[in-house]
Amino acid sequence: MNRILRVDLSSRTWTTEELDEKLIRDYIGGRGFGAKLLYDDLKPGIDPYGEENEVIFIAGPLAATGAQSCARFEIYFKSPQTGGYFQSSGGGFFAPEMKFAGYDAIIIKGKSEKPVYLWIHDDKVEFRDGAYLWGLGLADTEQLIREELNDPYVRVAAIGPAGENLVKYAGVFSDRRAAARGGGGAVMGSKNLKALAVRGHQKVPIANNELFQQALKAQVATYRENPTYEMMHTTGTQASELTAVLGMYPWKNFREAPGPEWEKLQASEFNKLRVRKMGCHNCMIRCSQITKVWDGPFKGAWSEGPEYETLWSFSGPIGKAEIGLTVLADRLCDELGLDTISAGQSIGFAYELYEKGVITKEDTDGLELAYGNIEVVPKLIEMIAHREGFGDILAEGTKRMAEKYNQGSEYYAIQVKGLELPAYDPRGAKAHGLNLATSPLGADHNYGYGSQELFGVPIPRPVDRFAVEGKGEITKFNQDWAAFTETGILCTFASLMTGPDVFSQLLYGATGVEEFADPNYMWVVGERIVNLERMFNAREGFTREDDRMPERIVKEPLPYGPSAGQVFEEDALLDDYYAARGWDKETGLPTADKLRQLGLDFTLDYAAQ
Amino acid sequence: MQPSDVVMLVNVLYFGHLREVTLKDKETIEMPSGATVGTLIEFLEGKYGPEYRTAMDAIKGLRILVDGRDHTLLGGKEAPLNEGCTVVFLPPIAGG
Q1: Inter-chain Cβ pairs, chain A and chain B, closer than 8 A
Q2: Is B20 on the interface with A (CB under 8 A)?
Q3: pTM score
Q4: What's the complex ipTM?
C-alpha cells in the first residue's frame, strides 16, 4: 500500500516506489500529492502534448476506507487549454480500485507508438493493444475492456473520440463520471493512451480503527443534520432555482439574465424525468440520477445527469431552455468525452459571433446558428469531438476562437486563462468571481466555491454577495478550504457538510499521522498547496495579467433581475485578494517571505522580485 | 393618505413544501407601505393558515431573499419591503 506507480509509455516500462514520509506529512495526499509531483516532475515550458508531460491519476488517502464521499479520482497535468497547471476531478469507483490495487498515484509519461491501454492488476502492469478501441465511445470502450479481461468488476478510466482528436477540452471518464475540465483527455490522446483498467484485491489499512469509526459516525451525523444533504439526496444537484432568483443564471453568452425561461429547467422539472437514483462508491448522498426524456423534440434521450453546470451549458449560452436538449447534450458529451461547460460555452460564443456577423453560414458548414435554432446543437457536439469542419474551430475553445476571428470578439469570449466560465455570473457574487479570476486553472468553480454568497453558508461569516471589501479574505478561505479537503479528495458537495474538525479526525484515524488531527495544521497545508500551484504557473510565466476577467464581465452591468447594475470590480477585488494572500500586488505572485513561511523554498527562483 | 394606507405590490416566490401549502409557485400581494419581511410572513400566515408557518419552520436552512439578498443581511424580520420587490422563500439548494 501507499505506493506510486510510474509508467513510461515510450519505453513500455514501469516501476513502483513507496511514498515518502515527508511528502505525506507536508502534503497529506490527494491534491497535495498531485500538486507536488507535477511541480517536481515537469520542467517549465514543455509542450502539453509532448512526451515530457504527464497525466497523474490520484486516489486520496480516504478512498476505500469507508469514509463518506471520498471516492473521487483526480488527474493532474499541464493543460493544453490553459498552458498551465491543471487538476480535474471525477466521481464513481475508479479511485477505490486504485487503492485496492495498492496505489495512491499512477504517473504516466512518454508516448506509445500505437494506441494502447494499461491493465493494472495488483502488482502487475500490462501494455495492451488499444487499436481496436480507438474511435469508440466511452460505453463501448469500458464494456469491451471488461469483456477482454473477463472481469465485470474492472474499473476503467478512458477517453472518447474527443481525447483522441486532441479537442482542447476533452476529459477523462469512468462509469459516466467525468474529470472533464482542462483537456486531460487530450493529453492522454496525445500519448496514444486510450484507457487505464484497474483491479485490486488488497485491503486498505486503517491506522487507528476505533478513532476512525468515531469520526465516521460523526461524519454521518453531520450529513443527517444538514438540510443540504436531504436536498441533494432527494433532488440532486440542479440549482437553476438558486441562480435564477439571485439573477446569476447567465443567458446568451453572459449578456442577460434568463427571464421566466429558467422555470422550464428547475429541479422539479428534472424530477419528472428521473428513472433511477445513482451514487458514487460509499457515498450516502447519492446525488446522481438517470433521466429520460418522455416527449418533445428530443424524446427518447437519456443520460446520467445532467447536473447543474451541464443543464446550464446547453441552455444559457444558446439562450434557450429546452430540457430534452440538456439531457441529450449531456449524454453525447459523456459518450464522446467532452467537458460540457467548455463545449456549451464554445457553441454559445459561436451563436453570438453569428449574430454579430463575424461568422456566417460559410464558416459553419451551412449550419444556421441563429438564437432559437437549437436543433443544430447535437450535430455541433459531434463535429467538435471529431474535429469535423467548423467543429475543428469550436474544439479550440473560446479564447482561440476569438484570436482567430478577432473583430473585437475577445471582449465577449467568456474565459479566464483559456478556460470557459461556469454557470454562476460572477457579477452577482464577487468572492465566487474572484476565485474564478485567480484560480491557477482558469475559471474553475470548484477551486474555491463562494458558498457564503451562493448558498448562504455563514462560515466564516455571513457575506453580502455584492460587497467588494473583504472578498479577498473570503476567497482565500474558500480556496484554502478546498485544498484542505482535497488532500483527502472529499467531494465538494460533501465538504460543506463534513467540516474541518470531523475531516481532520478522519484523516488522522486513517493515516495515524498525529499532525492531521489538528485542523490548524490542515489549513496551513491547504494554503501551501494553493501557493505551490500558483508557483507552477509563475514558473510558466503567469502573472496578474492572467487573472483578468473577460471584459464583458468587468464593463457591462447586468441589465435586469436581482443582480441588475452589477459589474465585477476587477482591480479592487484583485488588490484585496493579493493583500489577503500576502502576495505582491504588482505581479500577483507570492513573495519570498510567504513561500519560506510555507516551506516552499524550492520555488523561490520564481517568487515576486 | 397615511403612509400605512399606501399599498404596494410585492412579488412572492415559493419552492418545495411551501408550494404544497399555497398551491402556487408565485403570486403578487398587496402590502401596506412600510411592510417588512416579518409583516409579510404574518400576512401569509393569515392567508394560508398556521400550516404556512409550520411548513416554513420545518424547512431547515430556509433562506428568505429580498430582491436576491438574504434578509438576514438587511435587518432580518425588520427588513423593509419596497414597491415591486420580490421575496423568495428558498429551501437549501446547492449544486454544480
Answers
A1: 80
A2: no
A3: 0.97
A4: 0.93
